[in-house]
From TrEMBL:
Its main location: mitochondrion. It comes from Ceratodon purpureus. Pfam families: MWFE. GO terms for cellular component: mitochondrial inner membrane. It comes from the Eukaryota. The chain crosses the membrane at residues 6-26. The keyword Transmembrane applies. Keywords: Electron transport, Membrane, Mitochondrion, Mitochondrion inner membrane, Respiratory chain, Transmembrane, Transmembrane helix, Transport. This is NADH dehydrogenase [ubiquinone] 1 alpha subcomplex subunit 1. It is a single-pass membrane protein. It is found in: Mitochondrion inner membrane. Accessory subunit of the mitochondrial membrane respiratory chain NADH dehydrogenase (Complex I), that is believed not to be involved in catalysis. Complex I functions in the transfer of electrons from NADH to the respiratory chain. The immediate electron acceptor for the enzyme is believed to be ubiquinone. Belongs to the complex I NDUFA1 subunit family.
Length: 62
């Protein structure tokens, strides 16, 4: 009778899949790129530096 456990396990697995996929789709649609796992203070500092460098480069091209 172990097959009886397959239906609830399938439902649970499907719901976990739906939750993860919805988070991915929402984040990607808002920010335009997938979420970076383990985004810590160093990564945020590097993102800020990259943005500043891009702005400086664009200003120098004008």
């Amino acid at each position: 009778m172990s097959w009886e456990a397959m239906l609830p396990m399938g439902i649970i697995s499907a719901m976990i899949f739906v939750m993860g996929t919805s988070q991915f789709v929402i984040h990607t649609s808002i920010y335009g790129k997938p979420k970076h796992p383990r985004h810590d203070a160093w990564d945020r500092a590097m993102d800020a530096r990259d943005e500043r460098l891009k702005e400086e480069y664009e200003k120098s091209q004008k």
